[in-house]
Amino acid sequence: QVQLVESGGDLVQPGGSLRLSCAASGFTFSSFAMSWYRQAPGKERELVAGITGTLGSINYADSVKGRFTISRDNAKNTVYLQMNSLKPEDTAIYYCNAAGWSWGVHYDYWGQGTQVTVSS
């Protein structure tokens, strides 16, 4: 059974930091691309950052470049999102996503989300 379990969301003041974690199980983690998405109230879900499985190539949304860092630990089947210099507009539910191929079939998995609120 595939599971993506996010943790680390919290209420933080502007300028603060948080580290989100996503623990994965039930699939070959190292061969899947892992991403963080977010969805703010009244807005569509958007890609925040992604990291590929094999090469570890990384991409970021322009709005978080220089502030957020995505990383993965294939030994622990976990992907992280270090968020620094947080702004009120970063407030959203953050979702972990895993995407990849297995035996010619594409799979796309989602976690349940973790709430990040940036407010004074």
Task: Describe, in plain words, how this protein is organized in 3D.
The protein is globular and about 50 Å long. The chain has strands at 3-7, 11-12, 18-25, 33-39, 46-51, 58-60, 68-73, 78-83, 92-102, 105-110, 114-118. The model has no long low-confidence stretch (mean pLDDT 96). With 120 residues, the protein is mostly beta strands. Strands 2, 4, 5, 6, 9, 10 and 11 form a 7-stranded mixed beta sheet that branches. The chain is built from no helices and 11 strands. Strand 5 and strand 6 form a beta hairpin.
Give the SSE layout.
Layout: E1 3-7, E2 11-12, E3 18-25, E4 33-39, E5 46-51, E6 58-60, E7 68-73, E8 78-83, E9 92-102, E10 105-110, E11 114-118
Parallel strand pairs: 2-11
Antiparallel strand pairs: 1-3, 3-8, 4-5, 4-9, 5-6, 7-8, 9-10, 9-11
Number of alpha- plus pi-helical segments: 0
Low-confidence stretches: none
| Helix percentage | under 10%
Query: Taking all residues together, what is the mean pLDDT?
Result: 96
Distance between the termini: 40 Å
Biggest beta sheet attributes: 7 strands, mixed
Radius of gyration: 14 Å
Find the structural class using helix and strand composition. mainly beta
Helix-strand pattern: EEEEEEEEEEE
Share in β-strands: over 45%
Tell me how many strands there are: 11
* Shape annotation: globular
